[in-house]
TrEMBL record:
Cofactors: Mg(2+)
Entry protein name: Octaprenyl diphosphate synthase
CDD domains: Trans_IPPS_HT
Role this protein plays: Supplies octaprenyl diphosphate, the precursor for the side chain of the isoprenoid quinones ubiquinone and menaquinone.
Enzyme class: transferase
Keyword list, A-Z: Magnesium, Metal-binding, Transferase
Catalytic activity: 5 isopentenyl diphosphate + (2E,6E)-farnesyl diphosphate = all-trans-octaprenyl diphosphate + 5 diphosphate
InterPro entries for the chain: Isoprenoid_synthase_dom_sf (IPR008949), Polyprenyl_synt (IPR000092), Polyprenyl_synt_CS (IPR033749)
Length: 322
């Protein structure tokens, strides 16, 4: 099952979201148009806007409001990518040069600021305080997660609990927000917003775990980034945390030093340690558990092609690490 097939029920909606994105990207400042357009049009799965649409349609919305909210979510996500790449000094994303590599850090950061502010202008257009509340809380959580990740960089003492907290803030909360916005657009009560939000939260946790695992097992020609990118940045993700916890003293020392120094030149030894300590199946199994919990959160959502897509999306995510 391909992602395109899964998202077929909202194919028309996604096209209209693209139209909204192009219209709302417009600025009299040429550089903003160039940078924002470059990153938004660079590809990607567009999972976050898809979640807004699927949740909204599954819960009964038949208006254009989910399309506006989906574009808003994509602007927020794109802004975080622009800022992330500057912080991480990244030069490649999705197989293309990052915006900061092309236009410099200042242009990338300021264009990210433009996207954030434009997103909040779009939220105001909905006239819904609930939307503003969800996204204000979410963007604040993302910022906290980014700072925590920065604090964790190069620290081999990071525990699994600390790792999970980071991915909850920087990834899961935006997935959750997308689902909540869909429920708000469908005029659903708080209990339903909470249930569909839980689906998004659990899916976001699983998604980030799989992404972190792919840094050690993926084919770069498919993933668009080189193996060991997280290692080079000193990020203690779950595969490394587990490998250090389960490895012998020599293996633990290898991982510890690689995290402290960002020793990508030790990548092959690290990959062998990750493999031999069972870190791959451990991370995959935890991601699968979160995916099952995500699906369980949909139990009260009426059956429809949109609910079916939400369920299939959880399975698709974990299949990326197969």
């Amino acid at each position: 099952m391909t992602l395109k097939n899964i998202l077929a029920p909202i194919a028309g909606d996604m096209q209209r979201v693209d139209d909204v994105i192009r219209a709302r990207l417009s600025s009299e400042v040429v550089l903003i148009n160039e940078i924002a357009g470059y990153i938004v049009n660079a590809g990607g799965k567009r999972l976050r806007p898809a979640l807004v649409l699927l949740a909204g349609r599954a819960l009964g919305s038949r208006t254009a409001e989910p399309e506006l909210l989906a574009a808003t979510i994509e602007f927020i996500h794109t802004a975080t990518l622009l800022h992330d790449d500057v912080v991480d000094e990244s030069g490649l994303r999705r197989g293309l040069k990052t915006a900061n590599a092309v236009w410099g850090n200042a242009g990338a950061v300021l264009s990210g600021d433009f996207l954030y502010s434009r997103a909040f202008q779009m939220m105001v257009d909905t006239g819904r305080m609930a939307v503003m509340k969800v996204m204000a809380d979410t963007t604040n959580a993302i910022a906290e997660g980014e700072v925590l990740q920065l604090m964790n960089a190069g620290d081999p003492e990071v525990t699994e609990e600390r790792y999970l907290r980071v991915i909850e803030l920087k990834t899961a909360r935006l997935f959750e927000a997308g689902c909540r916005l869909g429920a708000i657009a469908a005029d659903q009560p708080q209990a339903v917003q909470d249930a569909i939000g839980l689906y998004g939260h659990k899916l976001g946790m699983a998604f980030q775990m799989v992404d972190d695992l792919l840094d050690y097992i993926a084919d770069p020609s498919v993933s668009g980034k080189n193996l060991g990118t997280d290692l080079a940045e000193g990020k203690p993700t779950l595969p490394l945390i587990h490998a250090m916890r389960q490895g012998n003293p020599e293996q633990a020392a290898l991982i510890r030093q690689a995290i402290e120094l960002g020793q990508v030149e030790k990548l092959q030894e690290v990959l062998e340690t990750v493999e031999s300590t069972g870190a791959v199946p451990y991370t995959r199994a935890l991601a699968e558990r979160y995916s099952r919990e995500a699906i369980s959160a949909l139990s009260e959502v009426p059956d429809s092609p949109y609910k079916k897509a939400l369920i299939e999306l959880a399975g698709y995510n974990t299949s990326r690490a197969s």
